[in-house]
From TrEMBL:
<feature type="region of interest" description="Disordered">
    <location>
        <begin position="559"/>
        <end position="580"/>
    </location>
</feature>
<feature type="domain" description="TonB-dependent receptor plug">
    <location>
        <begin position="114"/>
        <end position="222"/>
    </location>
</feature>
<keyword id="KW-0406">Ion transport</keyword>
<dbReference type="InterPro" id="IPR008969">
    <property type="entry name" value="CarboxyPept-like_regulatory"/>
</dbReference>
<keyword id="KW-0472">Membrane</keyword>
<keyword id="KW-0813">Transport</keyword>
<keyword id="KW-0732">Signal</keyword>
<feature type="domain" description="TonB-dependent receptor-like beta-barrel">
    <location>
        <begin position="317"/>
        <end position="779"/>
    </location>
</feature>
<keyword id="KW-0998">Cell outer membrane</keyword>
<keyword id="KW-0798">TonB box</keyword>
<keyword id="KW-0408">Iron</keyword>
<dbReference type="Pfam" id="PF07715">
    <property type="entry name" value="Plug"/>
</dbReference>
<dbReference type="Pfam" id="PF00593">
    <property type="entry name" value="TonB_dep_Rec_b-barrel"/>
</dbReference>
<comment type="similarity">
    <text>Belongs to the TonB-dependent receptor family.</text>
</comment>
<dbReference type="InterPro" id="IPR039426">
    <property type="entry name" value="TonB-dep_rcpt-like"/>
</dbReference>
<dbReference type="InterPro" id="IPR000531">
    <property type="entry name" value="Beta-barrel_TonB"/>
</dbReference>
<keyword id="KW-0675">Receptor</keyword>
Length: 821
């Protein structure tokens, strides 16, 4: 019997030796939160994989034996376990926070932490990828609280806009790896200059209100803090294509080496996006690339990012006139674009915007000691381009030209085409020094010095009439310079369950520009501003999953380029000041996580259009003494079952200006200017500030690797100006437009839009993953406008509104397929 058993074992040994087993498990942090994308590595044989969105990993086809398994994730210490494998085994990892993580200090210096007493939303790479069908960056942020987005072309490709708590893009601070993206003069952030940036982004934090100290333009409504590609230990390749309505197409190729020799990595991306747009002649042709190389040392990381975008878009900046939208007999009453219209009713084919922006970033992180770490960055951005347009019967005097007489004919006007150029350079240095004095006490010292130079000039390319204009005639030039210096210090001190926060920033701005002096001469001028922005708050942890917080912050915001160039020192507006009070509650659990936030934003000298003309005759922005925003934000995500979840957010707010004096341009029957008509309002709504914003996403996974989401957005009515749609007493509305509600009302109607998103993943032996996606926008084909403008005036005693709207696309789709290797 013994001999028979021995023989049986001898026969079985080769089978056991050749048996293949698997190792699987979950990777979490010490709080039990999943770490999607964490890397699991077996050194011999060389095998690695990454955790999925739930932190789960699986490695199969492993022979029996003894193995060392390593789990790693950015911002956490590497954890190693040794196992003897004789069957399928479950091996979980719980990673602890690293005292220093390369590429971490640069981002955390300008970000809110888990327990910060501010309102913020974090979006991971996976959050962005599931919605990245080629639409511009604001559309990927549309489901964050208090956000409203719009598209000039109507379908999310091309020029887009974002408002946070009613504040437009010029009041939203945007940084990429801590480096400012906002234009130094206009203060807007034009994501169209970096198409498909989301494909190279690792994560984004959206802060609401003043938030933490950051670099660049003052955060007056919110901040968008973007971190681009970070370390990936394994090589990869991805090829993606999107096609959709309005001849939309996106092509993306991404490559990465993974970690080479334990020290080096290279990542790259190439993208192209094309779309005709929903609006006529609002096409987009966009190209971009992203290249990043990094060196990882024992205590330091050096990374070079080079990325660029080129855009050529049809101009749709003025929207669609109200009289067109209100005319249901017109076939194109929602897509009509009158820009570039010639007298013969044809359109100028080069009525386009052309711009290229190149970014260079050198990022350095170094661990000086166990308690002290440093990050610094050198950066340079080069922008150059123009927009070209046709002008019908434009006056020669607008171009510094005198009338030209030929025989008995004197030429005062001419059809012409012109290019308005911008050639600018932006460069500087940012830094942050983080000191962990004790486990319950830390300090951060950070700041930046940035310099901007911008050349604004215009050329006439063609005139219909012979007006004596030489080729490429330059009719204006404005050279501007701006220096922006800031330094901030932040500290956190934990006492028991309470954490105290203090944050102070000093910012100094020097701006040189071509503007009017006191004698109305257009000369080079200077302006210097000094701002002090203190912040303080407290967070109390009820337990490891729940906390309450309160904070107070001050923000200051400088006027923009037009405010300076279209005024004199006597009429020049003052900087804006904001006092921001925030308080809230946050909870995080396995089934539900979310929070509630109360805010009160008190403005001093907020800048708005009042309709008044300044001393140079321009309708520029003016300061209003007292205005405020107050509201409540609620957001949460509940896991109803293992397959079904619901995420939702809502903002209810009141946004008011007190004691506002408005002025309407006034003309007689012969269109001669009369004295403007004044209108005084005790309390009125701030323009573009809806009182209710609601977002919802219901996600369901009916099958493994497949999901469907129903996404909804509701935005209540918004006013196009600060009158609250109230007409001056004694002024009648023009009967010519009485039957056109778009012309009578100076507002955007409330809208409720629903989208459907489908996704399915396939794994094969040769392709790591194939993702098939479908996004159906505005599935119920709602007709609505998300943005607009109004120019009311009184003509011969009758109020006339010149309203322009940006209609958004009715039902449309985007379908994508991405191959990951």
């Amino acid at each position: 019997m013994k001999n028979l058993f021995a023989a049986f074992i001898a026969l079985l040994l080769p089978v056991l030796a050749s048996a293949q087993f698997s190792i699987s498990g979950k990777i979490t942090n010490q709080a039990g939160e999943a770490l999607p994308g964490a890397t699991v590595t077996i050194s011999n044989p060389a095998v690695n994989t990454q955790a999925d969105v739930k932190g789960n990993y699986h490695i199969g086809d492993i022979p029996a034996g003894v193995y060392t398994i390593k789990a790693s994730y950015i911002g956490y210490q590497i954890t190693t376990q040794t196992v003897t494998l004789s069957g399928n085994q479950i091996l979980n990892f719980s990673l602890t926070n690293a005292t220093f993580s390369a590429e971490e200090v640069t981002v955390t210096a300008t970000r809110a932490g888990k327990n910060s007493p501010t309102a913020f939303t974090n979006l991971s790479k996976k959050d962005l990828q599931k919605n990245n069908f080629g639409q511009d960056m604001p559309y990927l942020l549309n489901q964050t609280p208090s956000v409203v987005v719009s598209s000039d072309a109507g379908a999310g490709v091309g020029y887009t806009g974002i408002r946070i708590r009613g504040s437009d893009g010029t009041r939203v601070n945007v940084t990429i790896n801590g480096i400012p993206l906002n234009d130094a003069e206009s203060q807007g952030s034009f994501f169209i200059n970096l198409p498909d940036l989301a494909s190279s982004v690792n994560n984004i934090q959206v802060q609401r209100g003043v938030g933490t100290s950051t670099n660049g333009a003052g955060a007056f409504g919110g901040s968008i803090n973007i971190q681009t590609a970070t370390r990936r230990d394994t090589g990869y390749a991805e090829i993606g294509t999107t096609v959709g309505s309005y001849n939309t197409m996106k092509n993306t190729v991404s490559l990465g080496t993974g970690l080479l020799g334990g020290h080096f990595s290279v990542d790259g991306r190439l993208s192209r996006i094309k779309s005709d747009g929903y609006i006529d002649r609002a096409s987009s042709s966009l190209r971009s690339f992203f290249l990043s190389g990094a060196y990882y040392g024992k205590n330091s990381t050096l990374r070079l990012n080079v990325f660029s975008g080129i855009e050529r878009t049809g101009q749709a900046w003025n929207g669609v006139p109200d009289y067109v939208i209100g005319d249901n007999t017109r076939k194109d009453n929602r897509t009509y674009n009158e820009l570039g219209l010639m007298p013969d009713s044809t359109y100028y084919k080069d009525q386009v915007d052309n711009y290229q922006q190149n970014h260079y970033q050198l990022l350095y992180d170094h661990k000086l000691s166990d308690k002290l770490s440093f990050s610094g960055a050198l950066h340079y951005t080069k922008g150059f381009g123009y927009y070209e347009e046709f002008k019908n019967a434009d006056s020669l005097k607008n171009y510094g030209l005198k009338p030209v007489t030929y025989g008995t004919t004197t030429i005062y006007t001419s059809d012409l085409t012109r290019r308005l150029w911008l050639n600018n350079d932006f460069y500087g240095i940012t830094y942050a020094l983080k000191y962990q004095a004790q486990s319950n006490l830390n300090f951060t010292l950070g700041g930046a010095y940035n310099r901007y130079t911008g050349a604004h000039y215009g050329n006439i390319l063609y005139t219909k009439e012979s007006a004596g204009i030489p080729p490429n005639y330059e009719y204006y030039r404005d050279d501007a310079k701006k220096n922006d210096f800031n330094i901030f210090g932040r500290g956190e001190y934990k006492i028991g369950n309470a954490t105290l926060f203090a944050d102070m920033q000093y910012r100094r701005i020097f701006y040189s520009f071509l503007g009017y002096d006191r004698n109305l001469n257009n000369v080079q001028q200077n302006a210097t501003l000094n701002f002090f922005n203190p912040k303080a708050g407290i967070t109390y942890e009820l337990d490891e999953h729940n906390n309450i917080y309160a904070s107070f912050a001050v923000g200051n915001h400088e006027p923009n380029r037009d405010d300076y160039t279209n005024s004199t020192p006597a009429s020049r507006p003052k900087p804006e000041n904001l006092k921001d009070f925030e308080a809230g509650y946050r909870t995080s659990g396995d089934v539900f996580k979310g929070g509630i936030n109360l805010f009160y934003m008190l403005y001093k000298n907020q800048l708005i259009l009042t309709g008044a003309l300044n001393d140079v005759g321009g309708a520029t922005r003016m300061n209003v003494d007292d205005s405020y925003r107050a509201g409540i934000e609620v957001d949460g995500r509940v896991k109803i079952t293992s397959q079904l979840s619901w995420a939702a957010n809502a903002t209810i707010s009141t946004n008011k200006i007190k004691n506002l004096d408005l002025f309407l341009a006034n003309y007689d029957a012969d269109y001669n200017k009369l004295a403007p008509i004044a209108q005084s309002l005790k309390k009125t709504d701030i323009a573009f500030s809806p009182s209710l914003i609601v977002g919802s996403e219901i996600a369901y996974s009916p099958v493994k690797n497949g999901s469907v989401a129903f996404i909804s957005k509701y935005v209540s009515k918004q006013y196009l100006d600060n009158t609250g749609n109230i007409n001056p007493a004694g002024i009648s509305t023009s009967p010519d437009v009485a039957n056109n509600p778009y012309a009578v009302n100076r507002l955007l109607k409330a809208y409720f839009v629903n989208d459907v998103r489908l996704s399915y993943n396939i794994q094969t032996s040769t392709i790591k993953n194939i993702n098939i996606g479908l996004l159906v926008n505005n599935v119920f084909s709602k007709k609505y406008e998300a943005n607009g403008a109004t120019y009311p005036e009184v003509d011969n005693g009758t109020l006339v509104n010149y309203n322009y709207y940006f209609p958004q696309a009715t039902r449309n789709f985007l379908a994508s397929v991405t191959f990951s290797f």
